[in-house]
Amino acid sequence: MSDLTNVLPVAHAILPQLTQRRSPRAYTDQAVSAEALQQLFTAASSAASCFGEQPWRFIVGSKATSPAAFEKILGTLAPFNQAWVKQAPVLAISIAKTTFSHDNNPNAWATHDVGQAAATLAIQAVELGLQIHQMAGFSQEGARTAFGIPDGYQSVAVFTIGYPAAADAVPADLRERELAPRTRKPLAEFMFEGGWPQPADERYDQAPV
Q: A single GO molecular function, which one (predicted)?
């Protein structure tokens, strides 16, 4: 079932899953099945990557099936995030392999490719009635220590996976964030056809505060 809370208004028609993707903080306690998780990470694996390296790795902690891992991921998060994340049924860490497997040279595009995989996963989640919320507020060293992540791999983000709940499931301050209107910059601020804009053409002043 689609999540129709705070659907993103757009000027040009795009896939509905893209307008419905959001980053909620309110989740139900419904468990995410193993089959659904496998679908999500299969979607992630379909993303493009430099040299077909697929540098993404994911550590998953489910309250239902791997509660110890869930608690370890939770422990890497900043206190603000911990306060609401503990309601989610699944947590995951996205990780980038920082060298190419075919020659061991540095892969400068690894985190870009991990981001592509996570974005693809997020859209598949919408199709399944799920949402994810990606976070930078975590300790990379904490994650490395908690899970023995070896050298040559870099934690990129932590994200929730779950079925979104009504906004009143979270405290008032977070509820405002859940329901705040969603906006995006106009194309003129980031799509530069033909070359970099000259000062007379720049429209950065139109960015929403």
A: oxidoreductase activity
The residue to which tokens 């929730």 are assigned: 160
Task: Please list the helix, strand and coil fractions of the chain in percent, rounded to the nearest 5, in that order.
Answer: 40, 15, 45
Q: Closest Cα partner for 186 from 6, 12, 5, 4?
A: 12
- Name the burial class of residue 163, with classes exposed (0-12), middle (13-18) and buried (19+) by CB atoms within 10 angstroms of its CB: buried
Nearest to 56 by CA among 108, 112, 140: 112
What pTM was computed for the model? 0.91
pLDDT tens for 156-198 read: 999 999 999 988 888 888 888 888 888 999 998 899 999 988 7
State the average pLDDT over residues 111-118.
98
16-182: which CATH number, 1.10.357.140, 3.10.129.10, 3.40.50.720, 3.40.109.10? 3.40.109.10
Parse the chain into domains and list their residue ranges: 16-182
Question: From CA 156, how far away is CA 150, in angstroms rounded?
Answer: 14
CB 152 within 8 A of CB 46: no
Q: At what angle do helices 34-45 and 110-127 cross, to 10 degrees?
A: 140
